[in-house]
Amino acid sequence: MVIEQLKQSEALLEGHFLLSSGRHSNRYCQCAKLLQYPHRAEKVLAVVAEKLKDTPIDIVVGPAMGGIIVAYELGRQLGVPAIFTEREDGKMTLRRGFEIHPNQRVLVTEDVVTTGKSSLETIEVLKQHGAEVVGIACIANRSTGDIGYPIFDAIKLDIQSWEPEDCPLCKEGIPCVKPGSRTIR
């Protein structure tokens, strides 16, 4: 069901992509295409909510941009508040009067988890406020290793990626595009 929703919303892209990690890939999961349809977001994130039904959660926090709508929809389905972190001067932070209290059980949300960079930046902010992070929830899990927290996903995607110098698409001269929101460093 999840893969069909991604395909029907044209969220699974084929081509030559520059990922926010700096790596290159021949496929990209643009979850914003899925999230533009509330009925699709509801269905896909219901899969994640079901996996979380026995996990105590006080609040959901998503990093901007990719985690905001996911946080909102999971918060709605789980019946808990949903807030977000955002970058200020290049550093992830809580703004807009949002608060995290010591010992709050927090679920971090993302659209796609690959390296976990945005999630881990958010977790660092949450830990500074004394939160207990229960895990990371996402639509698409592209991670290949342990990032230190349980991942609750709607779908696990195995998408190849390469360092730029090893990219076969670069060697073929195929132009590379960057579809994500995070600046490459």
What does this structure look like?
The chain has 185 residues and is of the alpha/beta class. Helices cover 29% and strands 30% of the residues. The chain is built from six helices and nine strands. Strand 3 (59-63), helix 4 (68-78) and strand 4 form a beta-alpha-beta unit. Helix 3 (38-51) crosses helix 4 (68-78). The N and C termini lie far apart (36 Å).
Shape assignment: globular
Q: How can the largest sheet be summarized?
A: 6 strands, mixed
Mean pLDDT: 93
Structural class: alpha/beta
Distance between the termini: 36 Å
Q: What is the rounded Rg?
A: 16 Å
The proportion of residues forming helix, as a percent range, comes to 25-40%
Strand order of the largest sheet: 5-4-3-6-7-8
Per DSSP, the total helix count is: 6
**Counted beta strands:** 9
Q: SSE order, as H and E?
A: HEEHHEHEEEHEEEH
Low-confidence stretches: none
In percent, how much strand structure appears in the residues?
25-35%
Which key features would you list for this structure?
185 residues, alpha/beta, six-stranded mixed beta sheet, three-stranded antiparallel beta sheet, 9 strands, 30% strand
